[in-house]
Amino acid sequence: MSPSPLAMVWSEPGRPHQMIASPGVHLAPGDALVQIEFATICGSDVHTVRGDRSAPTPLVLGHEQVGRVVALGDGAVRSDGSPLELGDRVVWSLAVSCGACDRCVRGLPQKCRSLAKYGHERITRGWELTGGFATHVHVRAGTAIVTISDAVPAPVAAAASCATATAVAALDAASASIDLDGALVLITGGGMVGLSAAALAVEAGAEVIVSDPDAARRSFARGIGAIPADPRTEMGNPEHLDTVLAARARRGLLEVTVAIEASGATAAVDTVISRIGVGGAVVLVGSVSPGPAVALDAESVVRRLVTLKGVHNYTPAQLARAVAFLERSWRTVPLGDLVGTSYPLDQLDRAIDDAATGGHVRVGVVPSLGVASALGHQPY
What we know:
ADH-like_C, Rossmann fold, 11 helices, 2 domains, globular, alpha/beta, NAD, 6-stranded parallel β-sheet, ADH_Zn_CS
């Protein structure tokens, strides 16, 4: 290809990314080459770069992105089985799955026995363009590819392949036990997953409380129809969780029946387990990097008939439903506003440093090159 696709390769904590060129891409049957339009930095990217979690290196990070198909292998298809076409604007699943192992057959393709994950794999000869922090991604057969309308803004579309689809999976896990319509839902963590889950739950007819220490995130939650709570406040403050719950009880919502933990904070895990009502469902989503152990009062869980579930990633059907949600709601649920700023691809280290401050829910990465491109790049 000319010009050659470029990717930002990460090797170890404390070492800057290196821009690498991939002059040749071989597409096997079912593969596709997608030119990136926009990518966002997920919290897991930050955790990896900081060394909070292990990763095989060298690798190309990034797994939240939207792009357009520019080349196809024979027989490449969308997740619904229809032929993929040149020019399709697409998002795709985090996971590459075989579709035939026992886990795939059980409906757990995100835990396939031969799983590969975009933005998480060591680059190898023949699959160098493995993550979203690049100009192109080599999307392999076994990936769920979903088209998305050109009308959906790129900062909204990019998060579909991680945050939005994970939020769909979290609510699916809860609604298997509890009808969301009319339920009182507590969500701890007002990041992209938590706020997406809040928007989905509000749409489903739930009364939703979002607990987060950041005032801007609580304000966003209020704007999409949720009730904000501040975990740092003292009793008597109108945003103290007990005060918020008492106000709901006066309206007949006597206890939390669904709780979704989306922050990964140990205190928040304690909160959702302790505050869930009798017969309620707790879904843990945010604990995706090592952290302190959480004490569990097993007797209390048993006596309250609590259902406790973990959700990690999602299925192809949940990705398709995430895209459908974004296509119908992006005007009224401005998730793109949570992408606070964007950087050119060759300033990725600055972008990740910015994302690590927590000042923005998401930081964007665009494939254009800034002044750092004058430093050049090396071929694979």
